[in-house]
Amino acid sequence: MLLIKKPEGQAKIISRTEEKRILHSLDAKQNSERNKVMFLLTIKAGLRAKEVAGLRWSMVTDATGEITNAISLTASICKGTKGRTIPLSKDLKQVLQQLQKNSTRIQSFDPVILSARKTAMTHHGVVYFFRILYKDNGLIGCSSHSGRRTFITRLANRIISVGGSLRDVQQMAGHSSLSITQSYIEGNDRAKVEAVNLI
């Protein structure tokens, strides 16, 4: 896939190959399950670093404690004044279930992501985690926002084929306007050529 150059200052998009390499690299690390959840919360659900740090089990479980099919973010951890709901991908649901299974005495208000000291991870801790993760995998230009940009771009590229629109992408991203959502989306030169040839 050919991509146009990203605007200056924006986090780099992660390719499918890079995503697989990162997930494979996490298998060999301490806190592998937690780290996979952190990575997939950004690339499969578009969460910001602040939202990853603020996520509670009550936002991903039902009344019986089972992992649900969607993340229900509350306004308290989102940017702006509204919460939002994001459907859970199969991959993310599976790693959340594994993390939950291997955690002890979880309460609904407990953070999903804990530091090595078993305390709530801070926003800055999440940002640092991603800086080291991408550096260790040789990815230049990536930051804690790369997964989010990747999620929004991939979603925008697929949403119309399943009957959705950019408005759906905007809602899942938690943006106040479509113009903000559009600024996150990476262009695709090949798609442009194919689209023009269909006219």
TrEMBL record:
Annotated Tyr recombinase domain residues: 9-197
Q: Which Pfam families match?
A: Phage_integrase
- Give the record's keywords alphabetically: DNA integration, DNA recombination
Coiled coil stretches, renumbered: none
InterPro entries recorded: DNA_brk_join_enz (IPR011010), Integrase-like_cat_sf (IPR013762), Integrase_catalytic (IPR002104), Tyrosine_recombinase_XerCD (IPR050090)
Q: Which PROSITE patterns match?
A: TYR_RECOMBINASE (PS51898)
Protein's UniProt name = Tyr recombinase domain-containing protein
Q: What is the protein's species of origin?
A: Piscirickettsia litoralis
